[in-house]
Amino acid sequence: MKALMKASVVALAVLCAGAAMAANAGGGEQASHMQNLALLLDLTDGQKPQVQTILQGEHQQMKALFEQTKAAGGKPDFQALRAARQQISQDTLTKLSGVLSPVQLQKFQALQQMHHHGFGHRPGAGGTPPAPTTNN
Q1: Does pTM surpass 0.70?
Q2: Residue 30 and residue 113: Cα distance in Å, rounded?
Q3: Is the pLDDT reported for residue 3 higher than 60?
Q4: Is residue 6 part of a domain?
Q5: Which of 1, 55, 83, 105 suits 113 as a labelling partner, its CA being 20 to 30 A distant?
Q6: CA 73 to the chain's CA centroid
Q7: Torsion angle, alpha carbons of 87, 91, 92, 95, to 10
Q8: Using one digit for the tens of pLDDT, what is the confidence trace for 82-96?
Q9: 13 found inside a domain
Q10: Residue ranges of the alpha helices (H) in 25-46?
């Protein structure tokens, strides 16, 4: 059971890395991301297009929020932005709860948590460099 849990965590971390890249890339990466998500959540053929539509809607809302904030100029209200982002995420979960099983929804939420906590980000890929190793 622990081996299965470890494998799931590793797979989720890989998916999160793919999600971050897919958000910045075009169609091929998005298709790959959706395939990975479908595999990890064990989506049925009927669920795949529904989930993809919901997630694309969330992405468009987040993009619009970012563009609106950028167009407003001045100093952004980070507290209001965070509240808006949380509301969009909550709306997405509500929509997904009508499509996914409780287990699938729980897996999706675990993926989100891992993504928000930085799991799946490659060290040295534009962020904090990897910690040096010491040989004692």
Answers
A1: no
A2: 20
A3: no
A4: yes
A5: 1
A6: 27
A7: 170
A8: 999 999 999 999 999
A9: yes
A10: 27-41
Domain span at residue 77? 2-116
Would residue 89 count as lying in a domain? Answer: yes
> Dihedrals φ, ψ of 14, to 5°?
-65, -40
108 Cβ contact list (under 8 Å, min separation 6): 41, 93, 96, 100
What's the gap between Cα 122 and its chain centre? 15
Q: Sign (positive/negative) of CA torsion 73, 77, 83, 89?
A: positive
Cα separation values, 129 from 70, 79, 122, 136, Å: 29, 29, 9, 21
Q: What is the mean predicted confidence (pLDDT) over 95-115? A: 93
Total domains present in the chain: 1
* Inter-axis angle of helices 47-72 and 27-41, nearest 10: 130
The pLDDT of residue 35 is above 50? yes
Domain-located, residue 25: yes
Largest separation between any pair of C-alpha atoms in the chain: 55
**Residue 79 to residue 59: CA distance in whole angstroms:** 20
Answer for the pair 96, 105: CB distance below 8 angstroms, yes or no: yes
